[in-house]
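Hi everyone, sorry if this is the wrong subforum. Our group has a chain we'd like a structural model of before ordering constructs, and none of us has done structure prediction before. Sequence below.
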Amino acid sequence: MPERERVVLTGIAGDAFLAEADRRALEGLQRVPLMPQLIRKFSDLGLDRWFYCTNMSMSVRVGPNQFKTVYGIFQESCRTLDMPEPELYITSNPFPNAFAGGVERPFITLRSAVLDTMSDEQMYHLIGHELGHIKCGHLLYRMVARVLMPLMRALGRRFPIVGDAAAIALIFAFYEWLRQAEISADRGGLLVSQDLDTSLRANLALAAGPSRFAHEADLDAFMEQARAYQEAGPLDQLGKVILFFVHTGTFTHPMPVHRAQQLEKWAETGAYRKIIRGIYKREEAAAKA
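Answer:
Right subforum, don't worry. Here is the predicted structure as tokens:
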């Protein structure tokens, strides 16, 4: 259950903490040819409903009488971001993570290992991160990517609605947006945890994973590592470029140290504090814009 009072961000819009890189990447994705056909195909095939039913069949739904401590954290997180509760599930998986899914019926699923990896306070960041995806309107494109991208990568030009070149462009545009969307969602996590160290420790816990030495994890050393990664010299920067083309270009998440450093930078700009003080774009204003 909540250990301290959190500022409720009444009426906050997703635009209030949407990363500019997220916005630009989505605009780029929407300009890729055949994107409307892909979205229509996703809808026509009922893939959102299929994914929802699959998740429900393999997970346990959390509620007042089912994992009530987790449900209490979840309720407080939803209140903090002033949004209706999506469905919440826990599924058995040894790799700590979580994801938000669904379009018509949004849901969040926590892998069992993440419950052992994070403290209760860090769970506020994790759940806030997934709520951030929902608040920022990420779910439709994330679901399309989750279901159709692996198929497109496997079939290439044989995919029935796109050719090889278009498929490659679409795949890279999708993965770029997916990575940038994580930056916005991390901000949602911080707005729920309302403590930068807690949010950074949550990222550290995800990067290191569960272990019997977890109590020896040092946040200061992790952030020094994150800053060193961002401030790498020319040869290391070249290594980053090579890494991108070999692996990172099709990662759905940015490197953990990069995410931690980006969250720290956002907090240092004062944007986070302004939101906590009540200075932010609200949903009514966002709808009129």
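For your construct planning: The chain has a mean pLDDT of 85. The longest helix spans residues 164-193.
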